[in-house]
From TrEMBL:
Main location: membrane
Spans through the membrane: 29-50, 101-125, 132-156, 176-200, 221-246, 282-301
Pfam family, any one: BPD_transp_1
Protein name stated in the entry: Carbohydrate ABC transporter permease
């Protein structure tokens, strides 16, 4: 029996297994594939940038790749799209850029703060029914966002009523940022609580218990211990949520009503191409403006991103 066990192949675990995985992903073939995929992924973005910098007549006559043999650069497309609006839009995109920031930042911070507190409570504050609450929150992820839009819109505008009894009064927040903030927060909370709970629950029990023995309250433990240790997970979810809200069109269009005072960039970008899909130089300039801020957020938090994704995947 012992000979059979000895003859079985041994699977590397711990530091040896991690080194084996690192060697596999650092091989010349893996490096070549990564470089190839990166180049293929970058080519459309490069074409977008080049087209946004070309004069209108050049865009209409030739493809963006001819820029390298016949270069021609102008910044008038960006001036047009930011301050004049371009074809099909009365005003520039600058007010909508501000609206996008006013929608995205709170809609990222609110679910992140609520989910972090809920995840800590479900992971370390034991109370009856905590497991049931966690599984219910997890199950809410299967509810399609599209099915909730109309009921939420009716709830915001008219409230909820059973016969003549008012269960929930209308909020009267039409044509403001508030319904968009609330909706994005509700849609993000199930996934955020699930991900952060899995991370926070894996923190060392001895560390939490030592703080509790020293007289630290749950709020002190959460603020001084859990939040600093959970920074990679928080940053990872913040990136995903920021990108989701920034690129969202459906929720913003449903709850802002398309009014210029609160509409984000996504509501207006479609109008830049005109009715027949022309004026590509204006459309690409607007599209490139819309990706600058998400890129800045991603590169600013990228050092936490991989750490947050891999948190808890390897023990030891």
């Amino acid at each position: 029996m012992s000979d059979v066990v000895k003859d079985q192949p041994q699977v590397a675990t711990g530091p040896a297994g991690a080194k084996a995985v690192r060697r596999a992903f650092s091989s010349p073939i893996a490096s070549f594939l990564v470089i190839l995929l990166t180049v293929l992924w970058t080519i459309p973005t490069l074409g977008l940038l080049v087209t946004s910098l070309r004069p209108e007549k050049d865009v209409a006559q030739s493809g963006w790749w001819t820029f390298f043999s016949h270069p021609g650069i102008t910044l008038s497309n960006y001036h047009e799209v930011l301050f004049n609006g371009g074809f099909g839009v009365d005003n520039g995109l600058m007010p909508y850029l501000v609206n996008s920031l006013a929608i995205t930042i709170p809609a990222t911070v609110f679910p992140l703060a609520l989910a972090a507190m809920a995840a800590y409570a479900l992971a370390w504050v034991r109370f009856r029914g905590s497991d049931v609450i966690f599984f219910v929150i997890f199950a809410l992820q299967v509810v399609p966002l599209q099915m909730a839009l109309v009921p939420l819109l009716q709830l915001y505008s008219g409230g909820a009523h059973i016969g003549s009894v008012t269960v929930f009064p209308g909020l009267g927040v039409g044509e403001t940022y508030v319904p968009v903030w609330i909706s994005h927060t509700m849609f993000a909370l199930p996934l955020a609580v699930f991900l952060l709970h899995n991370f926070i629950a894996q923190l060392p029990n001895d560390l939490i218990e030592a703080a509790r023995v020293d007289g630290a309250s749950h709020f002190r433990v959460f603020r001084s211990i859990v939040l600093p240790l959970a920074t990679p997970a928080l940053a990872s979810f913040a990136i995903f949520q920021f990108l989701w809200v920034w690129n969202d069109l459906l929720v913003a269009l449903t709850f802002t009503g398309g009014t210029a005072d609160v509409s984000p960039m996504t509501v207006r970008l479609a109008q830049l191409s005109g009715s027949f899909g022309d004026h590509w130089e204006i459309l690409t300039a607007g599209a490139f403006i819309s990706i600058i801020i998400p890129l800045a957020v991603f590169f600013g938090l990228q050092r936490y991103f991989v750490r947050g994704l891999l948190a808890g995947s390897v023990k030891g």
